[in-house]
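Repro:
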Amino acid sequence: MEHIVIIGNGIAGITAARYIRKLSDKRITVISAETDYFFSRTALMYVYMGHMKFEHTQPYENWFWEKNRIELKRDYVKHVHPETKMLSLDSGEQFSYDKLVIATGSISNKFGWPGEDLQGVQGLITRDDLELLEVNAPNNDICKRAVLIGGGLIGVELAEMLHTRKIPVTFLVREEAFWSGVLPKADARMISDHIISHGIDLQHEEELDEIIGDENGRVTAIKTKKGETIECNLVGLCAGVKPQIGFLASSGIETDKGILVDEHLQTNIKGIYAIGDCAQQRKAVGERKPVEAVWYTGRMMGETLAQTLCGNPMEWSPGNWFNSAKFMDIEYQTYGWVWAEPKDGNEHYHWQDEKNERAITVEFEIASRKFIGINTFGIRMKHEVFDNWLNEERSVDHVMEHLSKSCFDPEFYKKPFKKINTHFQNQKVPS
């Protein structure tokens, strides 16, 4: 019986395991040192905030794995030996495989800052990070102030988490508005204003220079590039993530930023594959980045690879880009492409309500008026509708006229679509 070993029990690895089992009777082993069972990583913030317990983040009962003949092994893989199809585990065991799937996810970026390894300096990716946060910032008596570095989605989550425990937060972002390397300026400024309205000390165009510690090796302050010293007991590293691939250094598996894979998610070594955050496409798909640290991308890769491993070769085809997040109280969705600055030949249309709580930004081609993408804030949209519009290459005029059909907000939700369409028609939109 063919033995498939999966390194990593995140969404990519576990999805692959589940779908391989649906499609075959192959032996499946999942190896992970993080936890006994798969959990929803995106729910970690709600555990810290007291909305749920950790066991509530586990979508499957503990008996699920044995019933479905998915073997779970709690260990850490130190080395991969492709020539013998063996794994060296931290426990000292040598473990064999027939085919190998690497789904080790991401780790927090570090950029060589002085003091970045002090106690009280951490990211927020793993369960260990959550437990460490309970030590470093259990309350505002022990953690008098936290400083967060980097304006991404993990950063805004961590800011909200700490804010619920009344821990003062200083947030350093190098852009002129929050996430303005991704969001158009109007969107980014609205999110900045919203974060500041919650009492977060959001400092734009500021960067970390040094983390200062005491004689016991614990953080006491940071120094910014502009020379300001800020006393703190916690430094949150939120300046993005990178693939967790250090253990592959002498394996012969080709890596760049991530593990290089072809259109079937296979590495340069036959029978070894990589999926999820740690995978890097040799040839990027459309406008997508070669490495995508996105939850649904990992899930889709797991499903795709399961087909290939079970005799139905399938190329990686993620479809139209989409994503969603939450900035404190403002829900965000994006479909298609809305660049921070419109691409050559494109234009942005922006609408924002008077309370600065809801907004949309649409990108479209000027000459053809083809709809390229949309950002929505505080307005819930239906994935299927936008996916169809993008596939059908609808015009921006069609999308704006029928925008209300894409909304799935509650029945008594006050819908802004008449206002948006009137505003759109009154704008001197290039044609």
